[in-house]
Design goal:
Layout: H1 4-10, H2 29-36, E1 38-39, E2 45-46, H3 48-51, E3 54-59, E4 77-94, E5 97-104, E6 113-116, E7 120-127, E8 138-139, E9 159-165, E10 170-175, H4 181-186, E11 190-196, E12 206-215, E13 225-227, H5 231-236, E14 241-244, E15 257-260, E16 264-273, E17 278-283, E18 287-291, E19 300-303, E20 305-308, E21 312-319, E22 324-330, H6 334-339, E23 342-348, H7 352-358, H8 391-410, H9 428-432, H10 434-443, E24 445-451, E25 454-460, H11 467-479, H12 490-499
Parallel strand pairs: 3-4, 4-7, 5-13, 6-11, 12-16, 15-23
Antiparallel strand pairs: 1-2, 4-5, 7-9, 8-10, 10-11, 12-14, 16-21, 17-20, 17-22, 18-19, 18-21, 22-23, 24-25
Helix pairs in contact: 8-11, 10-12, 11-12
Length: 508
Amino acid sequence: MKNKKQILAAFAVSAGAAFLIPSCNESGAQATADEKKTETSDGDLATPLLAQPIKGEEVAVLTDAPNVPPPITRKHRTKVVVNLEVTEVVKTMADGVDYTFWTFGGSVPGKFIRVREGDFVEFHLANHPSSKMPHNIDLHAVTGPGGGAAASFTAPGHKSEFSFTALNPGLYVYHCATAPVGMHVANGMYGLILVEPQEGLPKVDKEFYVMQGDFYTKGKYGEAGLQPFSMEKAIREDADYVVFNGSVGAMTGDNALTADVGDSVRMFVGNGGPNLVSSFHVIGEIFDRVYTEGGLGEPNKNVQTTLVPAGGSAIVEFNLETEGTFILVDHSIFRAFNKGAIGMLKAGGGDKDRNKVVYSGKTDDSVYQPEGGAIHTMPEAGKARPAAKNKEERIARGKGKYMAVCSACHQPNGVGVPAAFPPLAKADYLNNSKEKSISAVVHGLAGEVVVNGQKYNSIMPKLGLSDEDVANVLTYVYSQWGNNGSEVTPDEVKAVRAKNVAAPDGGH
């Protein structure tokens, strides 16, 4: 058996270059290839696929999530040219939080690639001159050492080319495999490639691209500013964010997926990792068919939740039998409601009476919005950072904290939830007393409260926010939705916190 030194040497790109890990496909690839080989009439060994002629050439249509390229309708092999550019870009991770993503095509996840079983794929990988790191690509759909990694190692300002034949149908992950591999993947360098079977996939009405990833930042969830990557947290597998399609809210609100009642839906689900296994679930739906681990054999049927391993995939299919908002989650549930792994599929239309037969309850997706990263038990001091310089800056910071921590209950527009969570918009309770408002956030509340003439009987838990964060979020609330425009300062919060008593009158 080769020793470690020999293995590493085999994957060196050049003297002094970064080493690459072996392909995730390399193990067992030879056995698979041997099984596929057949002897042709002239005595040469070849797969039946390779014996088929290649007709024509086309450039692959590449799409950003949640979109998927159109199904392949041709019935023959062809040459497919894939042009993919690596860029390192600053984009939004959550409201008020930016991150430097390393991307295949400018977004996370990378572009969706769709080819047909037997296609000859000519792959062109370019690394933008502004990149600071070399990159490559390991496609799990490739049969060959490194999955293309060694052949595609590309320095900034350079481009590489290699080719492969798509021998195995299925849904496959691709990712960067340049050392340090974990860092490249953790920064968003992954995507999906679908190899359609020769006969194609059954027709559906809607197809979507959904990919989960876990991210590790120096600051905790929701901490504002440009957040750097934390190798220490990544090694501990202590993710600050677990998200679908690259950011918190990428598939909620105005970004929600949409379909009609009666539509058949297919989701191509991937998990870039780098560390966590996804328990993929759609609240209010049952998967009619699940092609586990991206294989296209006999599907599992009537599945509630399916596991998607890091570096793996699944294809889920279901019919929309009624209207409403269906919530996509990682059912390791704190990841959904506190770290961002949540999405929405909004279904409309259909016969109203029939819809009620399928499900008679009212449609209300508000309780499934992200709860944010605050710990709803004991208050904790936030990480120190420079205080807001003025009221305008306090409002801007407060908006991000409100969306991360408060909007799940009180709603992004401050209207609350009837009979459950009081409104903050034009709220007499807030506008009549800053001290009561501060105390509600700092000390929490319980029992019956009256806001704008309506009674509520719920619990406001203590929130682990710093004096600065409380001042910012309340100043933002006061500046919105017809409230009186008051500014709350950290000194005022500190004074109320020191009293260590509940808000007077039991108000909310």
